[in-house]
Design a protein that fits this description.
With 308 residues, the protein is mainly alpha-helical. It contains ten helices and two strands.
């Protein structure tokens, strides 16, 4: 966030300066310099100190031999290296004397104070930690554990590699969390002020609209294809309806089928009756005479009353 704000101020100054380059260390408008300005300032000061010390140093004067007030980074580096070499020399001379005093027995550098002794001590700690880690791995394999490999940071004795891995893991976890937080902030800002919603006719607005359209096109096509596939695989729905007599019909198609079958049966019966009448005309006449002889219902009632 600080870098973005710093670059925003620098961009404004570049615009005000008619496109002239403005270095981060020359950015104004803030009480404290930004990260880029601090880095550039330190680098520039480092090279300026080297140039100033080299200008004051003579041709036959070593950088470490200059006064500390005017000694530059090169002089300080050479002085530290010279002190380390002197300490190594003194430690080796002392180790040789100790070996001679012990009748020629070897004296290890770790037994003598000095840079080589410190280095040997670190190497021994590393080797011992790796041996313990190898034993732990073999023990895990014997127990049948799924993860037999033991990482240096998870070993019983971490050692230099375990400490380094632990510090690296912590730094990586911190960096990951910071990047996630930065991503969430960027997403929140973009959701609040999206270019295609603020000014769709701008370059950023048109770019975002085109990119969003291209990304949403395949997704929409996939949704349509999925819906069409579901419709093709779907079955006909069964609707349960109840008629006036309380009979439940499964659907309208069943009622239509029943009506069609009844009509077919009635047509068949009429055709059979027609065929029988054509074959037996006497039967037809007898049926008509019988119909004529049958008295109407009113006359039957009157006859019954007279009999009573």
């Amino acid at each position: 966030a600080e870098v973005i704000e710093e670059e925003g101020r620098r961009a404004k100054q570049i615009v005000r300066a008619d496109g002239n380059l403005v270095r981060p260390m020359d950015t104004q408008g803030s009480s404290s310099p930004g990260p880029l300005a601090s880095i550039e300032t330190n680098v520039v000061e480092f090279f300026n100190r080297i140039r100033a010390s080299e200008q004051q140093r003579g041709a036959f004067v070593r950088p470490k031999d200059m006064d500390e007030s005017i000694r530059g980074p090169l002089g300080n580096a050479e002085a530290k290296l010279y002190d380390a070499l002197v300490q190594i020399q003194k430690a080796e001379l002392f180790r040789m004397e100790q070996s001679q005093n012990r009748g020629g027995d070897v004296v290890r550098p770790i037994d003598v104070p000095g840079p080589l002794g410190e280095f040997e001590k670190a190497v021994i700690e590393l080797v011992d930690a790796e041996k313990i880690r190898a034993k732990q791995r073999a023990l895990n394999e014997q127990n049948g554990l799924a993860t037999a490999v033991v990482r240096p940071k998870d070993a019983p004795v971490k050692g230099p590699m375990g400490e380094a891995e632990l510090e690296l893991t912590r730094a990586f976890a911190k960096l990951t969390e910071e990047e996630r937080e930065r991503l969430r902030n960027i997403q929140r800002v973009l959701q609040e002020k999206r270019p295609m919603e603020v000014n769709r006719n701008s370059i950023l607005g048109l770019t975002e609209a085109v990119v969003v359209g291209l990304l949403r096109g395949p997704r929409m096509l996939l949704t349509v294809l999925t819906r069409v596939t579901e419709l093709l695989r779907s079955e006909k729905l069964v609707l349960n309806t109840t008629d006036d007599d309380g009979v439940v019909n499964s659907n309208n198609s069943n009622s239509n089928k029943n009506t069609t079958s009844l009509l077919d049966e009635r047509d068949g019966m009429e055709q059979n009756m027609t065929i029988q009448e054509e074959e037996n005309p006497d039967q037809k006449n007898n049926m008509e005479v019988t119909k004529l002889k049958m008295p109407p219902p009113e006359e039957e009632e009157e006859e019954e009353e007279e009999d009573n």
